[in-house]
């Protein structure tokens, strides 16, 4: 037997276990694009022979035709590992066929240099242990490897043990590509890893946190899916890691004011009109869609919508005391609908740490677990909005993904709320009070007739919000150098009133400084910083965070402060990243999470505030 010294779990293994313990992941199984089964894997703790063990369980269900009859094959495997060292101690496998009720399987227990294997019928045999101390590290080699951030071309050798045939297979992993995708509202790095063993190749896509996303083995394909999709063999899920590509990236998409798209799909038969989304059917499977404020299109709310979309239900249990109390606390002293929406938006954006595959339908559990992707953000927002008397509903479709190597539109979910008699789009996972025109509202996320394989999207026209020219900005800076403050303020105001974020932020700084001939006025400072921040101008977002922290010009709020620090941090503001890390460390306005805090502190390590 090949031997290695007894070891304890590595940092990567501990990180992997902490992240995925007690979480079940589901996969659809495909052969030549036809779905034929599903499987799940699960990691959990258990007691075995008075020892605490980590159990890795896989359960697979497949359908096949045997002599014209459908047979269901089920196979369950369990691997029991020492919790302290990760070493594999025992395993079991059991399989059954529905057509003849035939069951097979065995239990294997490691005893020094041999596996003692007992079949279901009671017969015993021995199989040599070829690798001592084989364990979690070897079993999840590709998954834990990505946590050390390997580079393209990096290789590692390892062994894969399978309980079903009691064999160790030597193989090599190689990183073939590193990319990123927009998965349910979150940008996620991914690694394409080829595993080669005895001439066979498997291509696995592993996400940056160690989660297996998909795997190709010849004509067979395995893909992560929500449980309800994976178990329904008539449903073929779209691969939401693959965007519907467009030829050229949309430059400066965050400042779009208008976007016109031509969408073609063999399976899309209808598209709804919604908030700032005007649709013209220009062919049997072709649609021209105009997005943004310039469309001047507002979907009017029906009388029945008010009762329908404030009603309590199993999905939105607004009458539950815990949720109704939380809604009252979140809304606070807000008086207008706009203030209520902002308070709920900022709370939900902060309350859930992004987890792009949390798959939780229960609102109370989502809030308790403090994790969620775009669908969980939307569900919690809608529930709290309804509990506050605001008619709200979930929306889903696609959002533009600006990844350089993969530009296109990816699956996403957000919310809609009635304001002044019209439905308005709000995105709690992206922190947008009024959605930017880069979203296509369709039907349910997994039943929308639009996939990367059968669709194309072409940009027909785009227009942008007003932005002052470099020359106009320089004029303002020159006036400041000359100390001609009266003209400088008038110059910034003229640009700010047209909507320029830099000018709006400049006015905020002036009114907050008690200089340049203007009395300090924190309320006016807050007004200008707010206008710039809501346009995505990161310096203004950071300034708003400071104002909410200190209670200057606005009521002090750690929730609101953290929201704006988070928005600025997303754009690379290092000082904001540091304050956000502090918030996660202390649990101020966000869940207390030391790992999240540590990761953010690492990012902020270059910030000048440390000097």
From TrEMBL:
The segment(s) forming the Transglutaminase-like domain are 366-430
Per its UniProt record, what InterPro entries does this chain match?
Papain-like_cys_pep_sf, Sel1-like, Sel1_AlgK, TPR-like_helical_dom_sf, Transglutaminase-like
Question: What is the protein name given in its UniProt record?
Answer: Transglutaminase-like domain-containing protein
Extract the signal peptide range: none
| Pfam families named among the record's database cross-references | Sel1, Transglut_core
